[in-house]
Amino acid sequence: MASASLPIPQQRRKHLTIVLLLASLALLAIAPLFLYPVFLMKLLCFGLFAAALNLVLGYGGMVAFGHATFFGGAAYITAHALKVWGFGAGSGLMIGVAFALVTGFLMGIIAIRRQGFYFAMTTLALSQMAYFAFFQAPFTNAEDGIQRVPRPDFLGIVSLSDNLSLYYFVLAVFLLGMAVIWRVIHSPFGASLTAIRENEPRALSLGYHTNRYKLTVFVISAGLSGLAGSLKVLVFQIATLTDVAWQMSGEVILMTLLGGVGTFLGPVIGAALVLTIQNYMASTAIPVSIFIGLAFITCVMLFRKGIVGEIIAILPSASSSGSDRRKLEP
Amino acid sequence: MIFGVPLVALASQLVIGLFNGAFYALLSLGLGVIFGLLRVVNFTHGAFYTVGAFAAFLLTSYAGLSFWACLVIAPLIVAALAAVLERTLLRKLYGLDALYGLLLTFGIALLIEGLLQFYFGVAGQPYQVPDVLSGTSNLGFMFLPHYRAFAIGTSLLLCLLTWLIIEYTSLGAKLRAATENSRLLEVFGVNVPLVLTCTYAFGGALAGFAGVVAAPVFQVSPLMGANLIIVVFAVVIIGGLGSITGAIVSGLMLGALEALAKVYWPPSANLVPFLIMAVVLFLRPRGLFGKGE
Amino acid sequence: MRYDPLLWIENLQGWYGESHILHGVNLSVPRAQTIAILGRNGVGKTSTLRGIVGLLSRATGSVRMNGTELIGMPRHRIAYTGIGYVPEERGIYASLSVQENLDLLPKISDRGMSLERIFDLFPNLKERRRSAGGTLSGGEQQMLSIARVLRAGPELLVLDEPTEGLSPVIVQHIGRVLNTLKKDGLTMLLVEQNFHFARHLADHFYLMEEGRVVDDFPARDLDARLETVSSLIGV
Predict the structure, then answer these.
(1) Confidence class of residue B4 from pLDDT cuts 50, 70 and 90?
(2) Cα C172 from Cα C178, distance rounded (Å)
(3) How many angstroms separate the most distant Cα atoms in chain B?
(4) Interface test with C, best of B165, B171, B188 (most C CBs within 10 A)
(5) B102 to chain A: nearest residue by CA?
(6) Residue A2: pLDDT above 80?
(7) Which of residues 290-319 of A touch B (CB under 8 A)?
(8) Which residues of B touch A328 (CB under 8 A)?
(9) How far B77 CA lies from chain A's nearest CA (Å)?
(10) Which residue in chain A is spatially nearest to B101 when comparing CA positions?
(11) CB-based contact, C152 to chain B, within 8 Å
(12) How far is the C-alpha of A124 from the C-alpha of B229, rounded, in Å?
């Protein structure tokens, strides 16, 4: 579209987004009155994780198959820092994020040398390497994991020992993480990223250091995934191999895909859906992977845009613009 | 003694390494052939391997078939399963981004593994080595278990056969032509959709064959292929996707190196494939035998 | 005598993705004749040929070969109605040897030429039969592309710019070969920028503009029409 100002449908959509955001914010604030706070916190952790992956998957156009390393790795580090080194909640989260940023940089710098499915396979293989490293590192206690992690106070004053106060703390951190993602998407950096995703050769010829952009978004995404993993330790007081295994990387891709790749809220909704169904499945004898597998197949075959993506596509205002709808690019 | 390790121990480990390497070679060969033609990174490959092993286990326990019969029938079962999956699901994604194929096959793999888990539990099921192959030979410098020698030999034979078919038969020429420009080949009257189905089924059969051969050594369990496939991905990246020689050579090499790592520094054994992959990616992003994309 | 053309195209509409490029092409190719389509670049000549062999993303209308409708037929079955396609980009498989390229196509009839006959027509190919297709010169590639479909035994040869970018000696050689084939009774549909080449070969001409056939006339009327033709195709 050639006009300089936002076309009306887009403007309307922006309003709609803001209304939706405020509504969900209010909903989140009162949610623990109706729902079990621990489940809600789990939802927030995975929602943030999926939204962080979405930065790479949806906005960077790269299928990263190794994000469990950042999520579970940060969880291990935070758990160890809280339990053995006596860190506070804030510094515990920060050291987890720092770890995720560093490993994200290392994985990113190797993986972005290849594109498309090579990128996917490389991230997967590197995260499997990290899995074995964690498995063998003495501090992770192999199959047992790090258990009974304390919940220290935040900044020495805010007690996180009861679930309700912890919930609001987790909510605050979640919102902070989502705000970072929002900033990244709606910044010049985000716009450049879109340009690279749509047509990398062209972006290269325009003088973009495309690899630098891709690496940056990968590292940011890794850091936020780490934040989600560290938060999860505060909630469940445990860090295990499950969080660093490749199945976790697959699950978070499913959450993002199901909710809507490249939509702001889609991954969170996808996470909520997957966790709810998993919760329900846990009471049956059916292995969760049957559900995950079926969900993947259905999603890829029938609604590739995801729930939020399909809703946007149905909205009459959306037909003309693809600006919020990201598609997978090799 | 070599670097403080007795030759016998070293040689035995190397045989184990080559044994694993033969599986890597078979699986990455199938992955490479499928990828070359269908442009799909087949995540279901590990599940095909598992299904092959389960098919052998079930055929022997319930139908009383011999190992040798299973060696033929189980891969055919996997091939049929693969053909159905290609016709009903995978085919619909060909026009789209190749990553959807990867995600679909990932989902199929989880579904298959979940179903096996549901019916058979996570515990492994034992499978007997056929009597003829159960002995061991003393080669003087080492003991060679017959079954492992057989497994390495047949796997390599199958790899060689695949290579010969692709390089030297008219069917192989059609496969290579389809890899280059399949639309034109269709215009010339070649039923490319059928070729694609057969290729996927053939790749699946190779994995199924590997599964049968693996069954007597490893336990038959629902997740046996899931972890293997990730190492195979590393093999494929090291060798270069679509290179047949690359798949075979790097498969064997990786198996051997893993074995050496197990001898000299056991904790590193699991990491070796991935470390080598990282190094190769740095030095030769297209893989050791890759010609380009 | 009943008019019974080998190929009959009626109101062919064609698309590449979203763009509509053929707007109702009407054309017929009588048996044992050579038809040439003339026109400027981008008027839909190549697209018409691609429409015949099923290489457009969408096509409507009717294309009948020996009375069989080709529109909607699976692409791999079209060749079996008797069509041999020589694409503009030649379509040589670079990783296959010359021999493999020659043996690649399934036989669609018993008219398929023997290797001896092929090497008789194109002696160069015999010398290079072990070389990879990718190492051939442009002229050799063109010869191979023609030779390859002749091996399959088509009734109708569809040639897209067979002389494009080739040296005069090669153009002459290809001209001789096509003339021989014509004498043997092979039907040909030809798109050609090289007007002088087409002139010596074709029995009938079609002129295209903007995705349509705008005129057609037999070869004997060519001289009378030379001026209009020249202005239309810019010779």
Answers:
(1) confident
(2) 10
(3) 63
(4) B188
(5) A117
(6) no
(7) 290-297, 299-301, 304
(8) 97, 99-100
(9) 21
(10) A300
(11) yes
(12) 11
Q: What is the ipTM of this complex?
A: 0.91
The pLDDT tens digits along chain C (235 residues) read: 457 889 999 999 999 988 999 999 999 999 999 999 998 888 999 999 999 999 999 999 999 999 999 999 999 999 999 999 999 999 999 999 999 999 999 999 998 999 999 999 999 999 999 999 999 999 999 999 999 999 999 999 999 999 998 999 999 999 999 999 999 999 999 998 888 888 889 999 999 999 999 989 998 888 888 887 887 776 5
Taking the CA of residue A111 and the nearest CA in chain B, the distance in Å comes to: 8
With beta carbons less than 8 A apart as the criterion, state whether C190 and C35 touch.
yes
Helix (H) or strand (E) holding C212: strand C212-218
- The arrangement of strands across the sheet holding C7-16 comes to C19-29, C7-16, C58-65, C68-69
Chain A residues whose CB is inside 8 A of the B281 CB are 110-111, 113-114, 122
Q: Using CB atoms, which residue from B170, B173, B181 is nearest to C91?
A: B181
- C233 in reach of chain B (CB within 8 A): no
Element (H, E) at C159: strand C156-160
Q: Is C12 on the interface with B (CB under 8 A)?
A: no
CB-count exposure of residue C67 (10 Å: 0-12, 13-18, 19+): exposed
DSSP state of A316: G
Residues of B in contact with A290 (CB under 8 A): 110-111, 114-115, 118
Nearest CA in chain C to B194: C76
Mean pLDDT for chain A?
85
Measure the CA–CA gap between B66 and B87, rounded to whole angstroms.
31
Of A113, A294, A328, the CB nearest to B111: A294
Q: Which residues, 6 or more positions from C220, have their beta carbon under 8 angstroms from its beta carbon?
A: none
Q: Out of A253, A297, A299, whose CB is closest to B111?
A: A297
**In the structure, do chain A and chain B come into contact, i.e. share 3 or more CB pairs under 8 Å?**
yes
State which of A33-42, A299-308, C150-159 shows the largest mean pLDDT: C150-159
Any A CB within 8 A of B41 CB: yes
Distance (Å, whole) CA C68 – CA C62 = 10
- Of the candidates A251, A254, A257, A250, the one whose C-alpha atom is nearest the C-alpha of residue A308 is A257
The one-letter amino acid code at B225 reads: G
Integer Cα distance of A165 and A200 in angstroms: 46
Instruction: Kindly state the average pLDDT of the residues A158-172.
Output: 83
Length of chain B: 293
Q: How distant, in Å, are the alpha carbons of A227, A230, A306 from that of A180? A: 12, 17, 23
User: Which residue of A197, A296, A303 to mutate against B (max B Cβ within 10 Å)?
Assistant: A296
Phi and psi torsions of B80, nearest 5°:
-65, -45
Structure tokens at B264: 């000299």
Contact C172, C140 (CB under 8 A): no
CB contact under 8 Å between B41 and A120, yes or no, is yes
Whole-number Å distance between alpha carbons of A71 and A139: 17
C26: enclosing H helix or E strand? strand C19-29
C192, C199 contact by CB (below 8 A):
no
Query: What is d(CA C136, CA B238) in angstroms, rounded to the nearest whole number?
Result: 32
Distance CA A233, CA B23 (A): 39
The number of angstroms, rounded, from the C-alpha of C21 to the middle of its chain's C-alpha atoms is 19
* Interhelix angle B7-38/B244-264, nearest 10 degrees: 150
When scoring C50, C53, C73, C75 by the number of chain B Cβ atoms within 10 A, the one with the most, hence best to mutate, is C75
